[in-house]
From TrEMBL, chain A:
One Pfam family per UniProt: ABC_tran
Domain annotation ABC transporter: ranges: 3-238, 251-494
Protein name per UniProt: Sugar ABC transporter ATP-binding protein
InterPro entries named among the record's database cross-references: AAA+_ATPase (IPR003593), ABC_carbohydrate_import_ATPase (IPR050107), ABC_transporter-like_ATP-bd (IPR003439), ABC_transporter-like_CS (IPR017871), P-loop_NTPase (IPR027417)
Compartments (UniProt record): Cell membrane
Membrane topology: Peripheral membrane protein
GO CC list: plasma membrane
Automatic annotation (TrEMBL), chain B:
Keyword Signal: yes
The protein, known as: ABC transporter substrate-binding protein
InterPro entries found in the cross-reference section: Peripla_BP_I, SBP_2_dom, YtfQ_transport
An example Gene Ontology molecular-function term: carbohydrate binding
Ranges where the record places region Disordered: 293-315
Pfam families from the UniProt entry: Peripla_BP_4 (PF13407)
UniProtKB/TrEMBL annotation, chain C:
Molecular functions (GO terms): transmembrane transporter activity
Organism annotation: Rubellimicrobium rubrum
A GO cellular component annotation in the UniProt record: plasma membrane
InterPro entries: ABC_transp_permease
Primary location: membrane
Transmembrane domains' residue ranges: 12-32, 52-71, 116-136, 171-194, 206-233, 245-265, 272-293, 299-318
Keyword check for Thylakoid: no
Localization of this protein: Cell membrane
Keywords, in A-Z order: Cell membrane, Membrane, Transmembrane, Transmembrane helix
Membrane topology designation: Multi-pass membrane protein
UniProt-recorded name of the protein: ABC transporter permease
């Protein structure tokens, strides 16, 4: 084993990003590292490259324990990394970029001739015929990517970590890059390949390791794995058990909202959606498939360019979040830090914010009333905070999520969108959020819950919409809601037919 | 041959008789009231002499001025007035004018070129202005002890340095006159007032101040208000002398609130035209620097009349 | 914020002010004495209250703008425009009321323009307000036709140099404006919404905050404060000096906000602290004039004092000092140089 991480653990306030993770990399293999957002991939890589200090576990390189202190230190040890955004300087020449920090010197001065020949030597075997004296920025991202790889391989030479290297490449460029990667594999390097593109993963990888919620889920030979099984692993369906929907628990209410042909070019293909009062609609799909985009056009966060949403009284104006809120909508976004909380403001102010914005600046909620509201929700939602006057940014992820839920509960919306409500929060908070969802629905609220946790969707949803390639591709209801059906709908491009109970 | 001589002689006679001289004037711009007044006065002086003045506003840019002078040379004007925006970089264009035998007169500011390249320069002497102000004060107070506060111009600017030096020259030998406070008022009315308030605070509510010397009238106008607000009478309790002779200071003098101002005349063109006329008539070469008069105005010099005369000049 | 909370918030500024006053008193012993001359108070403290008025007024508006993570560089130019408008009106023989309304209207209009560029067109505040900063003085010069537009209207002059109950009108102006704006933002929800937009614009929008209207409002308040400041300086010298009115005062106003402890990155703000900041700056200015140093030293002394104040208020300074101490201690214990701490992240 070239590189072996054992029992790797990394904690952040309120969450365990890596929990006792095992990862092995052999020389001469391409090892794909997969998982949804928040699964722990980037944390694992950062621990391996020294960008993060691990809280537990050990890293063995060639059988010897190593302790990378920084990316530079990791490089010296033999672990090189290339990121999606090339970390080189576009205004320097290719040769300068390749030799940066270790330019060959003569009499104390950089020898340009020696630098050029070293650069050519470094690029040898990568199948590039480029002028090393031109600025790096003159070349395509793919070429820059390969130059970055050449530099990383030259500096480290044992382990190469490629973090989403193909995200901005076209198919031809991907092929070029993969040729390079195969060449390096033959030279005996161990290569870690991180990507969201499953086709590419199957095309290049020898083995696949799947992480989920900071835990190691599986490591298998790529050849022995099919797409459905892989997606199952990533989305967390336990292989043996079949979670099923708790049907008939709720009576479907009257029709509340109806969206027709709602869409936005480049973000989400026009879709129809009917929402009844007191129901939970689940939404499943891989990252970037159009789930969040659906939520954003419904809430006016991105103005739709086609379609209408109407209720019993007529069409609704959902052109801005403020108008959507006035129409009785709410939206707890996926990225809590950038889209949800107002970090420097207190728990009280964060809870009161939406209601206050809705009332307008001239009708302030009295301080005592704000306090009462905050205290009530802190109690009801069990928000763990030293007090209502604590800046919300200092709370853990799960408690921040509860503050945002409290913000919307205070508005008492008729339709609430929850985008990944349980991502990155600890188990206890997770269960409570699910309990709250059930509570809200039984009070008559309608919910759209977007989640990568399939069991969660199966457990709470009355219907599940499956999204793929920015298009609503399937709707499951009642008995048909099973993790297997969802996974099949996500995985199989031909499964266009609507499965209905 | 005689014919030609006659023809040229008659042309010369006709030229002088009709005074149809064409003079190009390259002005810096109109960045201050004084500059605007200079433009107005130059146009008035040209009109009074029947000179056809070609005016060009350079908007503070040397390249515009060089282009203007070149075009004057191309037109074949009889003379060029130049108020240079900077001191350097004029050699080439002045040589072109010299080759075309067009006399150039510099107004108000000097250039770093060889004096042979221009006919003469007309300007004021900043040190002398200060001296006139200082001498007036020395004469005014006689042997009485006098504590003077000074409002300086923008720190480091040449008028501030020279007017400060000149004033000290003017009071030299009068041990009874002492400059007790000296601060910059940035040549502005607001700062003049602010700094004067501080002077009044520092000098026993103003009771210890005998006179104010301000490097320009605007600061003096501001300071006069400060003195009044402190309950003192400017012009009586505190003598006020300043430099520039802009209209507003004459208003103050008419009201008895300012005592004297030294004129920085905007009429640079008058002496310039006089020198040019002599040059055209019989080739008289003037001195290389014509100093304008730094005339002293006091309350006795019909301040109201001076105000009325000046307020239309664009100050 | 309740009384003790407010006091805790402005305690660093109050201490700084006290230190500056003490320092000036060392150089000019009678600095703190206030007397009565006729029916008005006189003395350096009164001068500070009066002379600090323009920066204090600008600081009120600037605090709100900065709280939204913006900045308003144009306030000095707006002062010139508004002063010129009012002087023009008085010069035309219109009543003082018309002149004041014209100036306030001009200030609101300038603020609306800035707010439009920032909130509607999405131009970065520093660039958006730079436009008016540059063009504004030109507009003012067009109004005054390039001259200092003098007037003799006693009522207008009263705005700049009059006194009510012994206290100069400019001092009343900023104190009252500070109380009014302070009450408006804290007794309504404006303050909360401004802070929320300043901390996280995107999240605030998603919570339903109408950030466009809010940004327009703060830039208009800033324009209005600049208009008041412009009226005061114009009334003070009985003339509209388009070239010099409010020149560079935007920078002093930003400095006052910074000394007041409001982060230039937006969020939590305190108008009271900014006002104390303005008084700190003015105490330094007045102190320098009174101390009688040669004028060449003015800017250097001011810069050094401001640097000292900002360093002492810097939250990092405590950390750095603690870090140095800890490092020294650790080095003493181990007898070896401490290992450099690596920054995380890519």
């Amino acid at each position: 084993m070239l590189l072996h991480a054992r029992g790797l653990t990394k904690r952040f306030p309120g969450t365990v990003a890596l929990d006792n993770v095992e990862f092995g990399l052999a020389a001469g293999e391409v090892h794909a590292l997969l998982g949804e957002n928040g699964a722990g991939k980037s944390t694992l890589i950062k621990c391996l490259t020294g960008a993060y200090r691990r809280d537990g576990g050990e890293i063995l390189l060639d059988g010897r324990a190593v302790d990378p202190q920084s990316t530079a230190h990791a490089q010296e040890l033999g672990i090189g990394t290339v990121y999606q955004e090339v970390n080189l300087l576009p205004n320097l020449t290719v040769a300068e970029n390749l030799t940066l920090g270790r330019q060959p010197r003569r009499l104390g001065l950089v020898s340009r001739r020696a630098m050029r020949s070293l650069a050519r030597e470094m690029l040898d075997g990568y199948g590039l015929s480029i002028d090393v004296d031109r600025d790096l920025g003159a070349y395509s991202v793919a070429v820059q990517q390969i130059i970055a790889i050449a530099r990383a391989v030259h500096l480290s030479g044992k382990v190469l970590i490629l973090d989403e290297p193909t995200a901005s490449l076209d198919a031809r460029e991907v092929a070029l890059l993969f040729d390079v990667v195969r060449g390096l594999r033959e030279r005996g390097l161990g290569i870690v390949f991180v990507s969201h593109f499953l086709d590419q993963v199957f095309a290049i990888s020898d083995r696949i390791t799947v992480l989920r919620n900071g835990r190691h889920v599986a490591t298998t030979e790529a050849a022995s794995l099919d797409r459905v099984r892989l997606i199952n692993l990533m989305l967390g369906r336990e292989l043996a058990e079949e979670t099923s929907h708790n049907h008939g628990r709720r009576e479907a209410g009257a029709e509340l909202l109806r969206a027709e042909g709602l869409g936005r070019r480049g973000r989400i293909t026009p879709f129809d959606l009917t929402i009844r009062s007191g129901e939970v609609i689940g939404m499943a799909g891989l990252l970037g498939s159009g789930r969040t985009e659906t939520a954003e056009v419904l809430f006016g966060a991105t103005a739709p360019d086609s379609g209408t949403v109407r209720d019993a009284k007529g069409p609704l104006d959902l052109s801005t979040p403020a108008r959507a809120i006035a129409a009785g909508f709410g939206f707890a976004p996926e990225d809590r830090k950038t889209d949800g909380i107002i970090g420097d403001l207190t728990v009280r102010e964060n809870i009161a914010l939406a209601l206050q914005a809705h009332r307008g600046w001239a009708r302030p909620i009295p301080r005592a009333e704000q306090r009462r509201m905050a205290d009530e929700y802190i109690r009801r939602l069990d928000i763990r905070t030293p007090g209502a006057e604590k800046p919300v940014g200092l709370l853990s992820g799960g408690n921040q999520q509860k503050v945002i839920l409290a913000r919307w509960l205070a508005m008492n919306p008729r339709f609430l969108i929850l985008d990944e409500p349980t991502r990155g929060i600890d188990v206890g908070a997770h269960a409570e959020v699910l309990r709250l969802i059930n509570e809200m629905v039984s009070s008559g609220m309608s919910l759209l819950v977007i989640s990568s946790e399939l069991e969660e969707l199966v457990a709470v949803s009355d219907r599940v919409i499956v999204v793929r390639d920015r298009r609503h591709v399937a709707e499951l209801a009642g008995q048909a809601i099973t993790t297997e059906a969802i996974v099949n709908a996500i995985a199989a491009p031909e499964a266009k037919q609507e499965a209905r109970a | 041959m005689t014919k030609i001589l006659l023809a040229s002689a008659s042309a010369l006679v006709l030229g002088t008789a009709a005074s149809a001289q064409v003079v190009g004037f390259s002005q810096i711009g109109s960045e201050s009231g004084w500059r605007a007044a200079e433009t107005t006065v130059t146009q008035q002086e040209a009109e009074a002499r029947g000179i056809d003045l070609q005016f060009s506003d350079a908007q503070q840019k040397q390249e515009n001025q060089i282009a203007a002078v070149r075009s004057f040379v191309a037109q074949g004007v009889d003379a060029i007035l130049l108020a240079p925006v900077v001191a350097t970089g004029w050699d080439a264009v002045l040589e072109e004018a010299k080759e075309a035998e067009i006399p150039v007169v510099l107004l108000d500011r000097m250039v770093d070129s060889d004096p042979s390249l221009y006919l003469t320069a007309v300007g004021s002497d900043l040190v002398h202005e200060g001296e006139v102000a200082g001498q007036w004060l020395a004469e005014q107070v006689g042997e009485e002890p006098c504590r003077v506060v000074e409002l300086q111009g923008t720190t480091g600017s040449s008028p501030a340095i020279d007017r400060a030096q000149g004033f000290r020259n003017g009071i030299e030998g009068h041990a009874n006159i002492e400059i007790v406070q000296s601060q910059t008022g940035d040549f502005t009315r607001a700062q003049g007032k602010t700094v004067m308030e501080a002077f009044l605070q520092a000098e026993n509510g103003g009771a210890d101040i005998c006179a104010l010397y301000a490097h320009n009238d605007d600061m003096a106008v501001g300071a006069i208000q400060a003195i009044k607000e402190a309950g003192l009478k400017p012009g009586e309790d505190i003598l006020v002398v300043s430099i520039d002779a802009v209209p507003d200071i004459f208003q103050a003098m008419a009201a008895g609130e300012a005592n004297a101002t030294v004129e920085l005349t905007p009429n640079m063109a008058g002496p310039a035209f006089d020198a040019l006329q002599a040059y055209w008539d019989n080739g008289t070469e003037p001195e290389k620097f014509i100093q304008t008069e730094s005339k002293l105005y006091t309350q006795a010099d019909d301040p109201q009349g001076e105000y009325d005369r000046r307020k239309g000049l664009g100050y | 914020m309740n009384g003790t909370g407010l006091l805790r918030r402005v305690a660093p500024q109050l201490l700084t002010l006290a230190a500056v006053l003490a320092l000036v008193t060392v150089f000019f012993p009678s600095f703190l004495s206030v007397g009565l001359s006729g029916d008005r108070l006189v003395g350096s403290p009164i001068d500070v209250l009066k002379r600090g008025a323009p920066v204090a007024l600008l600081a009120i508006g600037m605090t709100l703008v900065i709280a939204t993570r913006g900045i308003d560089l144009s306030v000095g130019a707006i002062m010139a425009i508004c002063g010129a408008s009012a002087a023009f009106a008085v010069d035309q023989g219109w009543s003082l009321g018309v002149a004041v309304l014209l100036a306030l209207g001009a200030g609101l209009l300038c603020g609306l323009w800035n707010g439009f560029l920032v909130a509607v067109l999405g131009i970065q505040p520093i660039v958006a307000t730079l436009i008016l900063m540059v063009a504004g003085r030109g507009i003012a010069q067009l109004i005054t036709e390039g001259q200092i537009l003098t007037f003799s209207d006693a009522g207008f002059a009263f705005l700049g140099s009059g006194a009510v109950l012994g206290l100069p009108v400019p001092a009343w102006a900023w104190i009252l404006a500070g109380i009014v704006v302070g009450l408006v933002v804290r007794r309504t929800a404006l303050g909360l919404l401004i802070e929320s937009v300043g901390v996280n614009l995107r999240a605030s929008r998603l919570a339903g905050v109408n950030s466009t209207v809010l940004l327009l409002t703060v830039y208009m308040i800033s324009g209005l404060c600049a208009a008041l400041a412009g009226l005061i300086v114009t009334g003070d010298i009985r003339g509209a000096d388009a070239n010099n009115a409010g020149l560079w005062l935007e920078l002093d106003a930003i400095l006052a906000v910074a000394i007041g402890g409001t982060s230039l990155l937006g969020g939590r703000f305190s108008i009271l602290a900014s006002l104390i900041g303005a008084m700190i700056i003015q105490s330094i200015n007045t102190g320098i004039l009174l101390a009688g140093f040669p004028p060449e030293f003015n800017l250097v002394i001011k810069a050094i004092l401001v640097l000292l104040i900002l360093m002492l208020q810097s939250p990092r300074l405590g950390d750095v000092a603690a870090g140095l101490l800890a490092r020294r201690r650790r080095a003493d214990e181990t007898g070896a140089a401490p290992r450099p701490v690596q920054e995380a992240g890519r």
